Amino acid sequence: WVNAVGGSFENTFRNGGSQVSWYVGGQKPSEKSPIVKRLLSKARGEAEQKKTKIILFVRPRATEPYVVCGPCAYVAHNARKKGFEFTWKLQEFASLKNCADFNQLMDVAKRGGSSAAAKWA
Fold first, then answer.
1. Residues 45-66: pLDDT tens digits?
2. Banded pLDDT at 120 (limits 50, 70, 90)
3. 16-40: b or e for each residue (b if 16 or more CB lie within 10 Å)?
4. Alpha-carbon gap, residue 80 to 30, rounded angstroms
5. Nearest partner of 31 among 111, 85, 92, 75, judged by Cα
6. Rounded to an integer, what distance in angstroms lies between the CA atom of residue 113 and that of residue 20?
7. Which is nearest to 8 in space by CA: 84, 105, 104?
8. pTM of the full predicted structure?
9. What are the strands, taking DSSP E only, across the chain?
10. Phi/psi of residue 95, each to 5°?
11. Contact, 41 vs 49, CB < 8 A?
């Protein structure tokens, strides 16, 4: 779940919108945090997480509905960033970039007016 504009972390789309940063948040997340352990286990292809699916939902602002951006694949993580950053690749980007809701989301983020919003798309 990601807010395109506002929020505690500067979630950003990269590579023309095909990748997104997402932060675990919470009190000092680490590789021992349950959600981080589960996501890293999935990224490594461990059997216990084989059925786990990572699906991204993004909303233009905290008061607006989410846009389903679909399944994601692990790209990288950075435990040193505040909030424990993951980078995900949107697996259905080829279809998403032709979706009106996704493009509206990108437009809102681009003109959102904050430094965080300027980093989207």
1. 999 888 899 999 988 877 888 9
2. very low
3. ebbbbbbbbeeeebeeebeebeebb
4. 9
5. 85
6. 19
7. 84
8. 0.80
9. 2-3, 13-14, 19-23, 55-59, 67-78, 85-90
10. -80, -40
11. yes
Could you tell me the two tokens for 109? 């983020």
Laid out side by side, the sheet with 19-23 consists of 2-3, 55-59, 67-78, 85-90, 19-23, 13-14
Q: Which of 18, 60, 25, 59 is nearest to 39 (CA)?
A: 25
Residues 6 or more apart whose CB falls under 8 angstroms from that of 8 comprise: 23, 25, 83
Residue 73: strand, helix, or coil: strand
| Tokens 């932060």, located at residue | 23
- Looking at the predicted structure, is the pLDDT value of residue 110 above 80? no
The label of the residue with tokens 């602002």 reads 61
